[in-house]
What does this fold into?
Amino acid sequence: MNDLFLRKGAERRLRGGHLWIYSNEIDSKRSPLGDFSAGDVVTVRTASDAPLGSAYMEPQSLICARLYAPGEQCAPDHAFFQRRLTAALALREAVFDKPFYRLVYGDSDGIPGVVIDRFGDYVVVQLNNAGIEHYREPLLDALCALLRPAGVLLRGDSRSRREQGLEVEPQVAFGEVPAQVALEENGVNFLAPVREGQKTGWFYDHRLSRARLHHWVGGKSVLDVYSYIGGWGVQAAAFGAADVCCVDSSSAALQGVEENAALNGLQDRVSTMRGSAADVLGELRQQSRSFDVVILDPPAFIQRRRDLKKGIAAYRRINQLGLRLLRPGGLLVSASCSMHLSRPDLMGAIQGAAVRADSALQIVEQGGQGPDHPIHPAIGETEYLKTFFARRSQ
It folds into this structure.
């Protein structure tokens, strides 16, 4: 391994458990970034030459190196990935009784840049930067040896891959992978479009919050906004909702809602509306429609920290529109997957929406990502998901 020397004092975050090394922390005289290529493996060293562990390089990025083996000198080879994947699998098997979960969540599972979702016999892998792309083969070899899957699909359409000019088209890396794969969540069956759907085709992160719907939706009228293929809405119907309306701008997503409702024999209680969230909510208000439960699970409104102010306003606006359709005594389920939005900021946006909608709210439950999306205590960015269950008291 080559050595990557840090500037004096730059090791403090890494000694505290962080895994990211920024370009301005490098001693550019001893370790010129131009001497490295994406994927190069280095021993990270302090200014006084003390080793901190092994990292792979991303010299063209702000995060120019990612520590994958703190305190160790080892290559990202088959044996390394086997250890990491085995540990990740042990965590998931300890808390889930069926093989439907996020198997690897990047830094939190000690494999920076990698996301792996498991759908029974099928696995979907995301390699999110040019550095980890160099270790695709040993990673996939270790994955196949551990799980013996029927098929492995590579999904490359993440923003970070596009920005780095990497391949973004889905590729079958092993076996065969159908266009849709089956999964079960909270006792409800779904088909996930792993080839053409969003991200890996499914969002396991809201599993625990969706399970909590069971306590709130019995006999109720439910509006599921940004429904995608019905993760919230179809489960609400399965948990006893009298009727569910799913809203999404994608016709393919709403076709997925209909298929998943039918898969569970719920098609008579699940309907769909296509259009932008704001337009559809405005149309429903003009029709004098109202609901007992309104679910708002939008895409990330805040992609970069500089967009925070604008993003908070967007969350406030969509919650205001949702609250105007919520009956007194009803439940608002409001979520955000924006990493840069704090839980207090989301609560503030919801409260601001309540004031503008002339509503009074009580936060009765809170949710977050499940144990298959573990949080690295030194990397705040690994905690991104926030959900509030808010009862409209008037």
